[in-house]
Amino acid sequence: MSQIILQEKTENGILILTLNRPESMNCMNFELIETLTATVKESNFDMSVRVIIITGAVPGKGKKSAFSAGADLIERRTLSDDQVRRFIATVRETMITVEKARVPVIAAINGYAFGGGTELALASDIRIASSNVLMGLTETSLAIIPGGGGTQRLPRIIGLAKAKELIYTARRINAQEALDIGLVNKVVSPDKLMDAAMEMGEEIAKNGPIAVEQAKFVLNNGSECSLGVALSLESKAYEVTIPTEDRLEALAAFAEKRKPLFKGK
Predict the structure, then answer these.
(1) Is residue 262 assigned to a domain?
(2) Which of 101, 119, 136, 196 is flagged as catalytic?
(3) Which letter, b or e, does each residue of 115-139 get, where b requires 16 or more Cβ atoms within 10 Å of its Cβ?
(4) For residue 6, what is the enclosing H or E element?
(5) Using CB atoms within 10 A as the burial measure, which of 75, 87, 106, 253 is most buried?
(6) Residue 78 domain-assigned?
C-alpha cells in the first residue's frame, strides 16, 4: 500500500490512518483520495478493526500543520475540465466511503482543514480538533462550491442558516467557534490531540462491536427517514444483536462482576 496513507493498528482494534503529504499540507490529490478510499474499504473486511482515526501528518519544525488544506491546487491547474469532474466524483466517493465505514470514524483535526479537509471531517462520525485549528468550506472564494458533500453534511450538523453563512462567505473559523456551533465535538491542545482521539476510540472499542456497528447504521440512515421508518430500522438493527455471543457475554460478565470480553460474534 502506498505510503501516502500511513497505517497503524493498536491491539484493541483502533486503526490510525494518517494523510501523509505534510510538505503539501496534506492536500488531496488523486493518489491520496484513491488510496484513502481503498484503505477504508479494505478495513471493512478486517473484523478486528473497531474504530478508525484519521489525522494529518505533521510537517517539520517551524512549518504549519494541517489535517488537510483541501484539494491540491497545483495538480488542479494541470487537469482538464473532464479530469476535474473525475476528481470531484472521486472525492465524493471517498467521503461516502468514510461516512459508511463499518465502524465509527474519528477525525483528529490538526491545524488547517479547508475545503476537502473540512468535508473529510464532516464525513467522519466524531470530530476532535486541536486548539490551533482553522477550518471552513472555502470553495466559493475559488469560484467553485463544495463538491465532496459539504453543502449537504454541514447543514445537517450545524443547521441550515449557519451553514449558508459559512459557505457563502467562505469564512475560516477557529476551533472555539467550531465547538460553539457544534461542528466539532471537542477541542484540546495540539499536544493532546491524538491522546484525546485515542481515549475516545478506546471508549468505543471496549463496547460490543456488532452493537456499535448497528447503532452507526441506524443513526446514519434513520436520521433521513420519517420517525416510523427510522423506528423500524432500529427494531431490525436490535434484532441483529439478540442472537450474538457478545450479548450473552455481556450478561455473564455483569453477573460475574467482571469486564466483558467481546469477540464481535
Answers:
(1) no
(2) 119
(3) bbbbbbbbbbbbbbbbebbbbbbbb
(4) strand 5-9
(5) 106
(6) yes
Task: Tell me how many domains the chain contains.
Answer: 2
Give the amino acid at 44: N
- In a shared domain, residues 185 and 226: no
pTM: 0.93
Active site residue 199: no
Question: What is the rounded distance in angstroms from the CA atom of residue 48 to the CA atom of residue 15?
Answer: 9
CA distance 201 to 90: 28
Tell me the per-residue pLDDT of 130-184, one tens digit each, with 9 for 90 and over. 999 999 999 999 999 999 999 999 999 999 999 999 999 999 999 999 999 999 9
Residue 72 included in any domain? yes
Residues 88 and 217 in one domain: no
138 with 115, same domain: the answer is: yes
Same domain, 218 and 178: no
Residue 94: which H helix or E strand, with range? Answer: helix 81-99
Q: Which of 170, 187, 205 is the last residue of a domain?
A: 205
**13 annotated active-site:** no
Asked whether 56 and 110 are in contact (CB, 8 A), the reply is yes
CA atoms within 13 A on the CB side of 31: 11
Q: Which residues span the domain enclosing 23? A: 5-205
- Residue 100 belongs to some domain of the structure: yes
Identify the active-site residue in 13, 111, 115, 116: 116
* Element spanning 164, H or E: helix 160-169
Selecting among 139, 196, 213, 237, the annotated active-site residue is 139
Instruction: Mark whether 200 and 220 lie in a shared domain.
Output: no
- Which of 57, 66, 71, 129 is the catalytic position? 71
Residue 243 or residue 71, greater confidence:
243
Q: Is 71 a catalytic residue?
A: yes
Strands (E) in 181-256, as ranges, are 186-188
Q: Which of 38, 86, 75, 66 is nearest to 130 (CA)?
A: 66
Active site residue 119: yes
